[in-house]
Amino acid sequence: MAQLLRRIFKAAWQGFVRNGWLSVATIIVMILSILIFSGVLMLNTAFGMAIKTLKEKVDISVYFKAYTPEEDILKIKDEVSGLKEVARVDYISQQQALAIFTEQRKSDPLITKALQELGENPLSASLNIKAKSTNDYPTIVSYIDSSTFKDKLLSVDLADNQKVITRLNSLGKGLQAGTLLLDIVLSLVAIIVAFNTIRMAIFALREEVTIMKLAGASNWFIRGPFLVNGMLCGVIAAFATLILFIPIVLWLGPKAAAFVSGFNMIGYFFSHLGLILLWQLLFGIIIGVVSSFIAITKYLKV
Amino acid sequence: MALLNFKNISKAYATQTGSITVLDNVSFEVAPGEFVSLVGKSGAGKTTLLRLAMAELKPTKGRIFLDGKDVHKLKPHDLCLLRRRVGMVFQDFKLLNDRTAFENVAFAMEVAGYPDKKILEDVPEVLKLVGLSEKTNNFPAQMSAGEKQRVAIARALIQRPDVIFADEPTGNLDPINAWDIVKLLVKINELGTAVVLATHVKEIINTIGKRVISLERGRVIRDEENGKYLI
Q1: Contact (CB<8Å) A219/B107
Q2: How near does any CA of chain B get to the CA of A199, in Å?
């Protein structure tokens, strides 16, 4: 068995080196296929992060009437925090609201002057509520509407957020379906291109397969080197793709960050380098071995 | 018992306009150690007979026995074992182009699972027998047609086969090389291996002076000991 495996690996390596141009052509096409596949992976991550970032920006602000005691507001905060749909509740006091407002409008002297002339803090204390899922916001809102503390509320800025939430949910579903379709189409393109290249490479060697069969070689003795060769091409293509990916990511990273706020492509790529290489290796090896297996089987019927 | 037995072999190919019969009820036997020449014009069915005997093709009718075994009823593994007992020499050499002369010959031993030591001992010996000691590490592209055919014969010979099928082995060779190859086949036969030589070269057949089976339009029209090419 060890002798057989050694001979298979030796024949695979010899075939790989001696049919150098064929091997190079196969590897180049496999690199393109793995690039497409890796692009699909990165695209999925970018879309996922875009939706996550947008969803994180959604919350419900509940404004309290003036002079509502802080003690009451904190009780309400605890009550709302207890809801299973709620992820986090932040209390923003009147003073904090004023500080934030002043900071945001500091470049507008008119507003600053108006506040000074008013003499008192016109802003309300509020609670910012974040739900665990965007689907939970309607439940939280209906809880607030029917609560005992409703009379203490000045307003609940629900209407605008409700629209954003609905849009985000449908956008998320649409993007999910769209990327899934794109994934399938691009992965299929990558697989078909790589498969046909390997098939062509083996087609060029079909006469050799017949000779081997007539010399009394078993199917596995013939098939083995082709499978190892396919695997070898897949592994080399995966590493080459990873190296090619580095300048692409460095170039594309800032553009992606501008397009999808919060998506740090460069950081994501380098922190997930091992995982990305693993996916690329898996894709390369599987496509190399499976394509070789299917292609060679056709010529073994001698 | 006959080494090789062709029993009522017919082979027809389906075409768009009907079917073409290439072999029609061919029967003959080859004894162990015998030298048989299959002669006939191109298209007489010589190559088809050899391809049928190697189980590369299936007959439309009839059966072929090698050492008592129906070659078309063997399981894949047994067919591999049978092919290792038959050496094949082709007009177009059919060498593995990405392997050296040594590796082409060694391949036939590797498939049979011989250890490296035995391969390293036997291959140079057989290459010496066919006069290629100096070309051991040459690739087919670096050899002449005659040398390529010698490598093919060495490959066919290396496993000490019961029979060698030589299909127009001189077809691509100049007269001098052609004679060298024929002499080599005769020498191999004298060492005890049966040889079935398919050819349409009249001079070769008439000089060898062995058994001749003449085929015409897929039928055996003559089978003579010490025969001549009379078509």
Answers
A1: no
A2: 19
Q: Sign of torsion, CA A223 A227 A229 A233?
A: positive
- Mean pLDDT value across chain B: 91
pLDDT(A224) > 60: yes
- Supply the ipTM of this predicted assembly: 0.82
A3 vs B: CB within 8 A: yes
Partner A contacted by B77 (CB < 8 A): yes
Residue A2 contacts B where some CB pair is shorter than 8 Å = no
- Check: CB of residue A97 under 8 Å from CB of residue A115: no
**Rounded alpha-carbon distances, angstroms, from residue B122 to A225, A231, B117, B179:** 24, 33, 9, 25
Kindly report, residue by residue over B173-203, the tens digit of the pLDDT.
888 888 888 888 999 999 899 999 998 888 8
- DSSP letters, B128-169, are HHTT-GGGTT--GGGS-HHHHHHHHHHHHHTT--SEEEEEST
Contact of B81 with chain A, judged by CB distance below 8 Å, is answered with yes
pLDDT digits (tens, 9 = 90+) for A148-204: 888 888 888 765 666 666 776 777 777 778 777 887 887 788 788 878 888 887 888
